[in-house]
Specification:
Mean pLDDT of chain A: 95
Radius of gyration of chain A: 18 Å
Largest sheet of chain A: 13 strands, antiparallel
Low-confidence stretches of chain A: none
Order of helices and strands of chain A: HEEHEEEEEEEHHEHEEEE
Shape of chain A: globular
Oligomer: homodimer
Number of strands of chain A: 14
Largest interface: A-B, 62 and 62 residues
Number of helices of chain A: 5
Helix content of chain A: 10-25%
């Protein structure tokens, strides 16, 4: 297991990996981050990213991460194997797999890169929302353990909070780890999957769903994440299209000061 | 090589694969789809998808595709190896690699699934643009061979066509293969990468760039693509954020009749 620090958090326990056979690592599913069925996908994604972050060969910081949720993950032990697919001067491409009983249950690819100061501009618009301390905290859902691991303040499109009048699949919320934890790439990855499924918001009812693939782009570098610290981030999520058994979700995560930290895109199976 | 049909097109030649060693396939870079340096990324993406489409084990239709452009692709031969990572009842997860001289130059992951009729809704809004035949065709760029493989009619944000006044990184265009070719998943994949780099539009100047990762979600099933046939599709692309050496691009591709066919998200390295 990775060394515990003074700031050790339930999330660090959940995504923690210890050396396994060969170059591989061993992890365990985390009861506190359990979803309705199986683990919260955000923690699976963060665990896969973590396997790259702790790899001795890694160069630079995460720029993109794509996670495939290939099969249900059973409670208990799993192994994770990360592999540098190609190392260039300033970028590195990664592949990593999560296995149970010798079969791939989830896998991911990622790009890490040396970030450097360049020309910059943000064309996405930071939404006009009240600050976090003016928005009520929503109670965790007792049947979904991982929801208690976050402090969530919904502006629209949340449990018991009406959908946006103009955009029926929109959710906006202030969110942070509960208890508070300084933001890093792993926790940001998990937060990018912490939006409730768009179809629940859009239809005002729950149907069976499961994310199949999730891509996150990291706009922030480690300095910007460090500056964010434990303050809540603003998450904005919406769907573009629902049909033929799948829907998509696009999300942005913003710093308290209005810097774009990450954008994230997923495709989700649904049954009706 | 795959069998040539009456409708055989330069694109089919470019993405064509013939059996190689073991389960692998062999392909060749295509001079007509050459970019400034190396092949047009859209054709590399379509070739990787094609390796899955022609696989005997494939079930269902593409739902998502993520391509990593890991290293420059040299002119000439390459091998492609597709692998079903996990096969479920209605979904299948794939991994595929493009190798040159034994090293991975590009790789991809994908989800294929049986599509079926379900509840449906489109929250993305089909933009208010003039029909294709009222928009001028832009001449291909002589220094970029692949641009001559498409008929492009820019509404805004194209070569010699002003950027949108409200959204400085926005491009909207009608686009189809040149000569016309019935739309399929492979050609739609290539079109999703046929937008000029957002930073060229945003800054009004060219800088060295290279896409590192590209994710495409397919909202259309094969019936909808078939109905589209050879008519031009509407592409809409914009960037959210530029900085620290990378920018992102999100795009939607719409049918002539206003059905969302695909949405696509990429992250691009740039130098300045």
């Amino acid at each position: 297991m990775q060394p515990k620090t003074a700031s050790w958090h339930t999330l660090d326990e959940a995504i923690g990996l210890s050396p396994g056979e060969g170059d591989g690592h061993i992890g365990f599913t985390s009861p506190p981050y359990q979803n309705m069925v199986g683990p919260f996908g955000g923690v699976t994604a963060a665990t896969l990213l973590n396997s790259i972050m702790i790899d001795q060969q890694r160069q630079g910081q995460p720029v993109s991460l794509t996670v495939h949720f290939a099969a249900p993950i059973e409670e208990g032990e799993f192994s994770v194997n990360a592999k540098a697919m190609r190392t260039n001067r300033s970028t590195q491409h990664w592949s990593t797999e999560l296995l149970q009983s010798g079969k791939v249950a989830a896998f991911a690819s990622a790009v890490t890169a040396r970030r450097r100061d360049t020309w910059e501009a943000t064309d996405a618009i930071f939404p006009d929302v009240p600050p976090a301390d003016e928005v009520s905290v929503v109670s965790a859902l007792s049947e979904i353990p991982w929801t208690a691991r976050y402090e969530m303040r919904f502006i629209d499109g949340g449990p018991g909070v009406a959908a946006n009048a103009e955009h029926p699949s929109l959710t906006r919320l202030w969110i942070r780890d509960e208890p508070a934890r300084p933001l890093d790439f792993q926790s940001l990855t998990a937060i990018c999957d912490a939006f409730f499924p768009r179809i629940f918001v859009r239809r005002g009812q729950r149907v069976p769903i499961g994310t199949v693939a999730l891509t996150t782009f990291f706009h922030a570098d480690s300095n910007l994440l460090q500056a964010q610290g434990t303050k809540p981030v603003l998450g904005v999520a919406r769907g573009l299209n629902f049909g033929k058994g799948f829907f998509d979700q696009s999300a942005e995560v913003w710093s308290t000061e209005g810097a774009l930290l990450a954008s994230s895109h997923q495709v989700v199976y649904f049954k009706d």
